[in-house]
Structures are given as C-alpha cells and as structure tokens.
Amino acid sequence: MGLGDLPGGDFGSAAYSVSGDGLTVVGTSRSWQTFYFPYSVTEAFRWTSAGGMVALGDLPGGVFASGARAISGDGSTIVGGGSGVSGYEAFRCVGCMSPGGMVGLGDLPGGSFGSGAISVSGDGSTVVGQGTSESGQEAFLWTSNGGMVGLGDLAGGDFHSVATDVSGDGSVVVGEGNSASGYETFLWDATNGMRELHQLLTGFGLNLTGWRLDGGASISADGQTIVASGTNPSGVREAWLAVVPREPVAGCGDGIVQMPEECDDGNLASGDGCSSTCTIEPPVPAACADGIDNDGDNLTDYPADPGCGSPNDAIENPLCEDGIDNDGDGLKDALDPGCGGQGWRNSENPACADGIDNDGDGHTDSFPGNPAGDTACHDATEQSEGPDCSDGIDNDGDGLVDYSTDPGCQTNLEWAIENPGCSDGADNDRDGKIDFVPPTGSPQDPQCVSAWDPLEPPNSCGLGAELVIPLGAFLLGRRRAESARPLRRDRGGA
C-alpha cells in the first residue's frame, strides 16, 4: 500500500528503513517551507499505521533539507542527515515523534564540513555513515561515549570510504572502500579494523575466482550474514550473500579485560552485558520501561499498564494473568487463591500466605485463625503484611493508594483496609444485606453507616439480626412476668 506524502510541495516520498516489529517506517518526502514565499523541500518523515506520515523537521540553521535513512530495530532511534548551521550534518533522534528532536552528530576533524548517518544498531546506541576528514570522505562510527570516529579506508587508491550498515550490537560494520583494485566491500570490527571482505572470505576457504565484491553492503543483526551486489565471473552485476564465520577474539572470554576489550565476563556469549567480541552491551530496559506494549493490552509501561508495579518490573503481564503456576501450588492465575480473583495482582503467592515475616514485626501471614499471625493480614490473599492503608500498594485495585488518597482508608493504622467490609460486594455478616451502596438487586446493610466502615457488623448485642427479635421477645416476656410477681418482704416485716 502507498504511504502517501507530507502536506505541501511536489508529491514525492521514499521509504528507507523499518523497525524490527514492522510498525514504524522512516524515509524522505516533499513538503512546504516558507522563506518570504513557499517552496518545496525534502523532509524526513516517520510513518505508522495509526498516525500516518509525520514530518520530523530539520536541524536548526542552514537551508531546510533533511532525510531519515534508518530506524533502530527497537523503533526508538531514527538517524539520517539534515541541514545545520555548519552544513549538511548527520543526526540522531531518540523517541522522534515530531519536529524538534533531531540532534546533530558533528563531523570528523579536518576537511570541509559534511556528514550523514546511514544506519544504526538495534538499540540505537551506535550510528554509522560517512563524514569528511582531512583525508577526504571517510566512513565513521558514532557512539554516545566515543563520539564520531573515522574508520579509515582500504589500502591503495584515492581515499574514499563509506559505512553502510552495522550489526545489531554495533560491533561489526560493513561498507565500501577504495583499494588499489578499485572500490570493494569492507568489513570492520574494533579488533581487526577495516578489511577487504573478498580477501577475508577467501582466507576462510571460499572460492571467489572471477568475483568482484564492490557494492555497499547490508549485514544481519548477528554480524555474520552480509549481502550486496557485485560483478560475477561472467562480468555482469549480480546480488550476492556471504556468511562470515564467527572469529575468536584473542583473549576474549578468558575473564581478563585487556586492550582492545571493553569487557570480559569469561565466556563468548552475547546478551549477558558483555558481547561475544568483548564489547559492552547496552542495558536492556525492563518491560515496564521499554516503550513497548509487551502484553498486548494497549497499555504501555509504568504507570499506564496496571501490570507494572514499577518501571523496573520485568513483565507488563502480572503473575496473576500470565498462564503460569508461579508459586508451584498447582493453581494458575484466577484459579489460584493467592490472586484473590484479581488478574491485576502481580503475585500468586501473596505476602500474607508466603510463610515469611515480610514487614519484620515478628508476625507472619494471615491473622484470622492464627493467633501468632500478622494483624495487618485480613486474609491470605493480601499482597502486603504492612497495613493496607500505608503499604504503598493499591490493595483493592481501584487505582488509589493508601491514606489519604483512597477513600476506603480513613486512617493509616494497622487495622485499616483499603477495601472495607461496607464496600467489598460481600455479605460479610450473612444477614442477606450487602454494603453501604449495595450491588444491583441486593438490599443495603443497615449496619453500614458509610462505605468506608471496615466491617458489616451485626447488631450491638453481637448477634445476627435473625436472633435479635426472638431474644428481644424473650427478655420482654421475662420482665412482664417479674412485674406480676408480689414484692418480697423481709423477715422482719409485718
């Protein structure tokens, strides 16, 4: 389907990159800008099915012109080039939703000013492209810690190189350089620098007789599969694919950090904070702070998603609706009494039934029927041994927490609960009447003076309503009988 065009200007647009989940597209379109009079310009855009095509503006200063060339796999970062004060400049835009978010990345030292970003790592932390150094047009790699660094060029020929793609973790770069034989595809990493891909693959035993690999390349997220175009043995252009075997890094994985390693955790596995090439991997944000709707409920991160108790929670889907028996009692989710029938709860084994003195007061778990229990535990489903009205937890799931925010809390004392007996939807005293404001079709409990009363108490005699009338009749009859008896005289009377 067509993605359309930005408003104004001559119609024209081009898409260059898409996020890993396929939901966000970036590229360049035509739009209007006004400088004394309207004129058509090129402008970077971001497209989603929900929001359509949105203009991203330009760097401040200079003649208006911008283009988005790539978006990170996680969709968080867009890179490209724009017209800044000093000239055309590579930009990076994190969380880019509208104009004003672009940040210029500068240029390599020396030479005339000019740079452009072409690709970005999976998490947006590493950007590659081409800048202008004192040697000429040169491939660059940019990180937030190291800034923009030139990657050099292949040996021989006029100086010219460009980085066209980067692996998911930012450790491997591919592009095109100029060697003594002309333009050739290169592969770069921090340990080995820039190498001719043709020569590297031949060294691995691949027969490339008659092939010339001379196109700007693209690389897979794991840094092993490379594609581009080249000249085949018949002398015609042909697409090619090459798989580069994983090379051991000298010393990497021995647990000792030594140059050029950034880290060494004693293994060659990626995804644990230190990559297989001993470079530091950026931390992966928790599911409740990653900007992604991980559980598909159309709510994202803390505090919007009720499955998130804090930004540090590893899941958006609370334990009481994840389909897993988290506490090993053979019951899952709504069927687990630890969930109290509340899917939003993030524990199947609540604090009031886990056998632990969670609040350090010397008492453990549910109080009813347990003389040594914690008085703050009104039943075994509660998520905190601390008082409901001062434990920082939304115990009754009404979106309000503690005294004095939750109207169910009239004090912060230990006995207080957030969902009191007079507003819990239950007939707690078994008199057939429910709550201060009863559910539809049920009579109101006259013992509830307000919705925040902690109990639906029986009458003041301590007995249920069904016993009040018979007992009252008995007492009244007894008084009448006693009043009919003659007065007792003492022995000395007449």
Report on the architecture of this protein.
The longest helix is centred in the C-terminal third of the chain and has 20 residues, at 465-484. Among the domains are: 13-236, TolB, C-terminal domain (Neuraminidase), CATH 2.120.10.30; 420-474, no CATH class. A hairpin with a 3-residue loop joins strand 15 and strand 16. It has 494 residues and is mainly β. It contains three helices and 20 strands. The strands form five sheets. A four-stranded antiparallel β-sheet has the order 1-2-3-4, with no helix packed on it.
Produce the secondary structure layout.
Blueprint: E1 13-18, E2 24-35, E3 37-48, E4 52-55, E5 66-71, E6 77-83, E7 88-94, E8 103-104, E9 116-120, E10 126-133, E11 136-143, E12 147-150, E13 161-166, E14 172-179, E15 182-189, E16 193-196, H1 197-203, E17 212-213, E18 218-219, E19 225-231, E20 237-243, H2 402-405, H3 465-484
Antiparallel strand pairs: 1-2, 2-3, 3-4, 5-6, 6-7, 7-8, 9-10, 10-11, 11-12, 13-14, 14-15, 15-16, 17-19, 18-19, 19-20
